[in-house]
Specification:
single chain, 135 residues, mainly alpha, two-stranded antiparallel ribbon, two-stranded parallel ribbon
Length: 135
């Protein structure tokens, strides 16, 4: 069986729950990326979360975000989250592509992936195909 640190981890399941930008069209994916960019501005202004930025060499971005919040400049946070940051942290693609993208990003790191349902029920059939492709 699989062993790490002398322990049998064969039956351990690791579920990733990443931010993912997806949708039926490229425009929908872009809108989702912008929503995540805004969320990241707030999230990474908190030192406890900013360690993710540090792991990628963007400690200065986290520090700057924190300073902006302390100065009450909340409206400036989103602009600090670059496309480079989103590209590194957010798997992005249409429903047609996202299962392959998620497998590329996470197959070697986890045994499952949590996904939230689409906001619109009109996307349910496409989302079901993504779930089936990830199984």
């Amino acid at each position: 069986g699989a062993k790490r640190s002398g322990r049998n981890v064969e039956n351990v399941r690791i579920i990733a729950s990443p931010f993912v930008a997806t949708g039926a069209t490229a425009a929908a994916v872009k809108r989702e990326r912008e929503r995540i960019r805004e969320h990241f501005g707030f999230l990474y202004s908190t030192p406890q979360y900013a360690t993710t930025l540090e792991l990628h060499g963007w400690k200065d971005v986290g520090d700057h975000l924190h300073k902006l919040t302390r100065a009450g400049k909340w409206d400036e946070l989103t602009a600090q989250i670059s496309d480079e940051i989103l590209d590194a942290l957010v798997p992005s693609g249409t429903y047609a592509d996202i299962a392959t993208i998620l497998r590329d990003w996470f197959a070697d790191a986890c045994t499952g992936i949590a996904r939230r349902m689409p906001e619109s029920s009109k996307d349910d059939a496409a989302f079901e195909k993504v779930v089936t492709a990830l199984k």
